[in-house]
Amino acid sequence: MATSLYALVDGNNFYVSCERVFRPSLNGHPVVVLSNNDGCAIARSDEAKALGIKMGAPWFQIRHLQESHGLVALSANFALYGDLSDRMMSLVAGLGHRQEIYSIDESFVDLSGIRGDLIRRGQTIRSRVLQWVGIPCCIGIGPTKTLAKLANHIAKSAERKPGSYPAELSQICHLGSLPTADLDNVLQATDVGEVWGVGPRIAKQLREGGICTVLDLARMDLATVRRRWNVTLERTVRELQGQPCVDLDDVPADKQQIACTRSFGRPVTELDDLREAVSEFASRATEKLRRQHGHTQQVLVFIRTSPFRKDPQYSRSIVVPLLRPSADTTLIVQAALDGLRCIYKPDFLYAKAGVMLLEIQPDTVQQSVLDLEPEQPGRSADKGRLMGAIDVLNGRYGRGTVLLASAGLEGDRRRWAMKQERRTPQYTTRWEDMPVVRA
Hints:
It contains 15 helices and 13 strands. By secondary structure, it is α+β, with helices and mostly antiparallel strands. Strand 7, helix 7 and strand 8 form a beta-alpha-beta unit. 35% of the residues are buried.
């Protein structure tokens, strides 16, 4: 039986790297990408990190660095990031047998049984991703997913923190190839808080107990870990000891709940504006529902004011049950709007709204025999084809190409639309934004 071996491939400063693909003039400059409504930093270049900018730093607290240090701040361009992620992941898949896309910029790959120089193989994939997509990445390799994740951290830190790790571990770190003594030195130099699955609270508890490094954690007695903490941390320790406990998730599990929520770009008071927002959010959530071939039984809708303002506060939600499980956008949007009418109160400055689909089940589940008003088969098939056609058109021509009238029209007149004053063009997903090269 082949020994387990995993790789974790991670795009470096992914959102910033995506922006630099089409704006190479940003290379060498401090850059941050801001969250929805340009609220806080969700991605930072190495130059921005060197300025002391922390992840999640509010924009109003760091905006002065524009003048003093040339900081460049950009609004999030998720259409661009998602497209470049797809391109990157398709190349990364060639590294091994199976692939688990863990996040927009991270992917686990199964290397079990692959012969030859895995570091050279990894270098080939890195070069291909950089040349064909433009994204720099690091690769961590280990006998378990936890060790592969740790190796990826070390691969990044070996360049950022000279002296902490051997230079040969930079960009690609293969923990499985290190002699025992060298592996112990690397684990000893790594803080316990860097372990995948060890959150800040548990890391603090471990340090208080004298467990400060990854090596300390890897050498802990398993019975003690389970008794003082939980089975999850015990599994992490086993993985650090080289015992695989977490396999690749080839097919992501269906979601039990699907939500679409947004903060508004400016305060909203009118019911008509809230209707547009809730219609949009319900439509997006239902599209995700159909993507996993599910039906929902209940629709939750909420609205709330901002807790950070001194205005009068109001927050309310309501769950609206459906007559039968459905993935029909028109029915789900109507249920959400019915709920909105029940909870809306005038004269409040609403800052956020959202829709959540509950009690999701596969669309193959048969209707209950107690359903006294079953939907006519012909009408059900027609609505299914209609929803499928909407999904195809929006997928081909861009989200929002076809929408319900209650969602209003795309454009500046939507008071609830997010602030994205610094967003770059959607270079790869909109014809209007495609770069043009002239000889």
